[in-house]
Amino acid sequence: MSLSGLLRSHARRRLTPAQAVVLGFLSAIAAGTVAPRLPLAHAAGTEHGWLTALFTATSAVCVTGLIVVDTGSAWSPFGHVVIALLIKTGGIGILSLGALVALATGRRLGFTDRQRLQAQTNALSVGGIVRFVRSLLLFTTGAELVGALALWPLLMRTHDAASAAWSALFHAVSAFNNAGFSLYPDSLAGYAGDPAIGLLIAGLFVLGGIGLVVVIDVALGVGVVARRRRRQPLTLHTRLALLSTLVLAVAGWVAVAGLEWRNPATLGSLTPLERVVAAGFQALTPRTAGFTMVDIEGYRAPTTLVTMLLMFIGGNPGSTAGGVKTTTIAVLVLTALAASRGRSRVTALGRYLAAATITKAAALAILALLVIGAAATLLTITDPGLPVLDLAFESVSAFGTVGLSLGITSDLTAPGQLMLVVLMFAGRVGLLTVALSLAANGRQWVARYPSEDVVVG
Fold first, then answer.
1. What's the burial of 54, exposed, middle or buried (CB within 10 Å: 0-12/13-18/19+)?
2. Helix (H, G, I), strand (E, B) or coil at 38
3. Which residues have CB under 8 Å from 181's CB, separation 6+?
4. What's the CA gap between 148 and 152, in Å, rounded?
């Protein structure tokens, strides 16, 4: 082997799991930026610069859905295929795809490779990670194909068979991966009167946002019951994730319906049944889906704030969704309840939570708030002419990889758009992963200091 080959091999071995995840996504974004720059990717009569290509590629790989040009009209069919492939790559994870290619070519994955996959997929352990990645590919692809087949006949009401098939596949991939990209300029607002399409799209992005860990756990439990064996209890993670998802869905639904029911700019112009469906859809889409069935620029201020809170929370860990994650917020709420009752340990559904879990949850939430606050502040400097609430909304949406916007994305200056690029990347990869990737690889001496209390509250 040549000297350069040895150096590259040595560098690969020294990459930490966090660094491998960060470099993997950066590589996918870099490759994805080149493809949209090709004239073949541009719609007739259009031309897009490097910043537009970078923003679009980052938004697709980070499954966000923020756009600076209309997806349907600005890109050619080839460009649409590129965007769909980038969404698929970002949803399943670049390291997962690399692992699947390696396995398909007969290469065995070492322990370090498995650690990197665990870091990317948020799996609970290294054991069984290869089987988990295989299941991830089958699950995501199967759900996308089933969703596309279900959407196809519904879209044939307004499209010919071929265009309906492609639109169904594109939106199924975008929905399941919580990307929010749409081939229509008004997202799904044109189908607000079609509950079937709304429910199908919502079902896809909710399933994608639940996470494979939860799906497998539930499937195993159902399988055991079906075989009339002793019921296998769900893990604490699964129960907490499902309960959090249900509570947020119902609370969001009630909030959006109550606040927007008579607003003529949003739900007020629909029939009662359409309002119920659209309100539920709009309550679920901030869980990082990014699709809309109404014009959110017409939201009342309280609804905008509720949407920002839902975007900040996001979906479940190990899913295609972003945000700080449902279980993170659940842990923090349970910690606050325990503290208010004077309890020294935190319980969740009959189990004690580890101190490390509580510390990680607090670190994630605090880091996210600091990053979003700093980004929103910088956006007020780079784009002083835009409303502060709109800039804050854009920051939360980018970090949460949601893709909802109050219509200012394309109005941002180049520095403002680059700020969103950084936010989308940090939100998709994870703040702790980024921080760990920057940490030194070498062994560090950990000093032991005396403890002392401080007054808080």
1. buried
2. coil
3. 59, 60, 65, 67, 71, 83, 87, 170, 174, 290, 403
4. 6
Pair of tokens at residue 234 = 């769900």
342 secondary structure, DSSP code: T
Tell me how far apart the alpha carbons of residues 398 and 333 are, in angstroms, rounded to a whole number. Answer: 24
How far apart are alpha carbons 293 and 278 in whole angstroms? Answer: 6
Model's pTM, two decimal places? Answer: 0.84
Nearest to 56 by CA among 181, 235, 158, 201: 181
Confidence at residue 448, expressed as pLDDT on a 0 to 100 scale:
77
Tokens of 87: 């969404």
The residues spanned by each domain of the chain are: 12-436
Read off the tokens for 97: 């795809």
What pLDDT sits at residue 98?
A: 42
Query: How far apart are the C-alpha atoms of 401 and 179, rounded to whole Å?
Result: 8
Is the CB of residue 207 less than 8 Å from the CB of residue 150?
no
pLDDT tens digits, 37-55: 888 988 888 888 899 999 9
Place of tokens 């607090």: 362
Length of the chain measured in residues? 457
Contact 34, 146 (CB under 8 A): no
Contact between residue 151 and residue 200 where contact means Cβ atoms under 8 Å apart: yes
- Fill in the DSSP letter of residue 69: S
